[in-house]
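Quick one: structure for this chain?
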Amino acid sequence: MQTDAEGGVILEINQWFFERYLPTWESIGNSESRNPKEILDYWNVPMHAASIHVNAWLLTEKAVLGRLGDDHEPLRSAGYAHTNVVDRRTVVYNDNAGSVDVIWSRCRHDNTEIERIAAHFEIDRTGNGWRIIGFASAPTAKSSLQATWRES
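Got it. Here's what it folds into:
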């Protein structure tokens, strides 16, 4: 793993992920008027998804957008409004690749929690900017990544 002493790439990834990607994901999820295709500015095609619901390569835009719909549909039905970041960790592998681990608390307008998941996102710099090329997630009741992930 490459160290990023000045924080340049870590800062770049964190700004892209938490200040651009997350608000877009949230607004697509809590508003049926947003175009789901906007997620393709953040999710790569192809993309690998691994969760309790799927473990597959999503090879087409249709498959990637289908995964987004599968994530958002039950949240919308439960009154989804926003996501709280409970814990997070960003790792830079090199100037063009990194990962973000996060615990999401997906909530209603009154901040009651609908679901809590731990997620790992693989992120690469592409010709179109940063893109999530793969993710893995699992439900959790915990509030720290250290307590959630199994490590060797």
